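User: Before I run my own analysis I want an independent prediction to cross-check against. Here's the chain; please return only the structure tokens and, at the end, one sentence I can use as a sanity check.
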Amino acid sequence: MTLRTAPGSGATSGQTSGQGGPPPPAAGARADGPPAACTITADGAYAARLARSGDSWYPERWTLDGPEPYAVPLPGHQPEEPGTEVQPMSDGRVLVRRLIAGRHTFSLLYPAGPGTGEVPLGAVECPQGTRLRLLPPAPGGERAYALAVGPHSTAVWQVAGGTFGPEHLAEVPGHCSGGAWLDRSGRLLALDRQAEGHTKAVVVDLDNGGAVSPLLQIAPHSDDRLLLADPDSGLLLISSDAPSPGRERLGWGVLGSTLPVRFPECLHPSDCTLTPFAIQPGQALTPEHCAVALRCDGPFGSWIAVWRPAERRLRHLPAPEGWLTGTGVWTEDGELWLPCVTDAVPCGVARLRPPAREPAAPRVTRVVQVARGDHVPRLPDAAGPAPHGGGPGGQAFRNGPASRGGGPTASGGGSPDGPDRTAAGPPPGTGLPVGAPHAHARHAHAAHRPGPAGPPVDITPGPGASRLGGPVFERVPGTAALFERVVPQARSDTGDAPRSGVSSSVFTDTDRSPQAGPGVMEPAAPRPVSLQQAATTGRMTGG
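Assistant: Structure tokens:
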């Protein structure tokens, strides 16, 4: 592999082309060209894409962090080839990689009056059978990197932000693909390396001479790839066939964690393919709450899904019109920005704010129809204990011709049906029915006389209450039906695996033992899974 630096590298060419740039791309112009996508900087400030006007392709820069997004065309001296790559930099310039006479040339483009200024950076010449492509934008946006993939090794190049043009940084044995940044300094690069018939994610330390260390080793014979990583929280989106050999599944883990990789069942739908493309940044201490945007491809087109590790379901959202499929960026406060291009809006950003997490609903174990005149256990209202005969809102549960005075009748006989069973509410803060000993609170509502027949009751949970020393009872509003609410056992916030320090098992939502409850998971057969982080030790301790 040969490095060639163009004359005058680092100096502005001073030449311009065009008067104001070409018109916006025509409708449907991307059908026979490269994929309709764009590249966004790590901070979401700029984006760049290869746009089209008629039969000509040209780079286009988008500004996203202003009051309104706007596009600036950056045409060169001649139309670009469809395979030209573009990448925005943090200062607003756009890096362009062109393949010219077998050499990969790099330049920085920027608006200069009515035309385009260009800064040549140099070129990289690759041997036969080697493919070179740009890596995803690095954190900070001041430098850019490229990956030259050969038949036996893969080279990492710094192609922008250096002192003397393109610079060779590392040589990784094996055929590598992918590419994700694991830290904010741009030091640790994760690649998917194919060796000995299997693909494993590895870490390349660019500040340590390109030292390589393993990152994912879920099973000895599994293919483990890193799809997406968030440097702030350490959340990793992983593709692996370890849970089901021969079938790739989406999973997640946390960089440096001792917990195993988890493969939620909701990320394995049978009717569509999921591809993650953006993770919410800024959630340093709560990776399980990071929102992840996924592209869904099914028989009826493409749409968007949002998922959080702490939830056990996908939230499906329709794709906005003209969405540049598979591209987008999250803000720290949880807003998803999706670049769009339509005939009416050649540069647009759809901003979606998915709903927040929903609290888990209580589990209903028993529903009881209380007969007339029977004692009705109740919970104190949120505002405090109710008066005698109290029900919700301070009104009595009048289930029969009981005395309205809350006590025996004048004759001492109580109600015609027997002793008065409508008593005062339970002592404040106990959550227990009146007249029932603590040990027998569970049976206080058991009626021995038949109740009136009627249609099934729609159970609606009432106000929250404590569970101190006994079961929690709630009444169906407007009826005499009761249900007992059982507080679920404490489990991991992720809901996908129990809290454990063991990192030698793979968990899925279907890995449950017959004795396990609805929210409790048992590990499957032990399979080695560890998030190796040898290269990150320096960063964690003093890097």
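Sanity check: The helical segments are 537-541.
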